[in-house]
């Protein structure tokens, strides 16, 4: 006689439903934009009724925030490696995957514009952006530790948090320019700007890539992002109670 699998709990079933809706919504927002996406179509794509969407999310804005949360979780799960990548090719080539990334970035711009006019939404978006800045600050701190291990002087005027904020602004600004069709930035220029921030007047872009590769192997980045992930999950649980 074979043992039957344990029946799925109500909580697990609700979690699976929620995740399926979020994944369907992410595809819908990428395809149709924030304003063009419809909750009934998202529900149908996920295999549920529209009521299932509203039993998990109050409105379209809350659903989009949940997608941002999933993206944050996936980013933290990589140990911050995504923060070292250069967002250029995926914003310019014509593959299906690249178009999906580009189109979701456009939907995010739509959502941010909507949120900026709403006090509650703008606060929620800011919390998520601040977490991203924290990730870049961890990158900056790890890069400094890597430089110190190489015997280099570390006497920057800006602290790691300030450098992290500037790195975030650089990467997000470049992404917006590329989405808008500008050719002012390419991957090499972005790497050069990153090198200037992480080692002012010092290493070349190529040499900084070596430092960043070394920084990624340090436990500091993983530790900082693990702490951020723990605090982030705790704050979300408090908000859901």
Automatic annotation (TrEMBL):
Coiled coil: none annotated. The keyword Aminoacyl-tRNA synthetase does not apply. The keyword Cytoplasm does not apply. Residues 15-75 form the HTH tetR-type domain. GO terms for molecular function: DNA-binding transcription factor activity; transcription cis-regulatory region binding. Residues 38-57 bind DNA. This is Helix-turn-helix transcriptional regulator. It comes from Actinomyces bowdenii. The lineage of its organism: Bacteria, Bacillati, Actinomycetota, Actinomycetes, Actinomycetales.
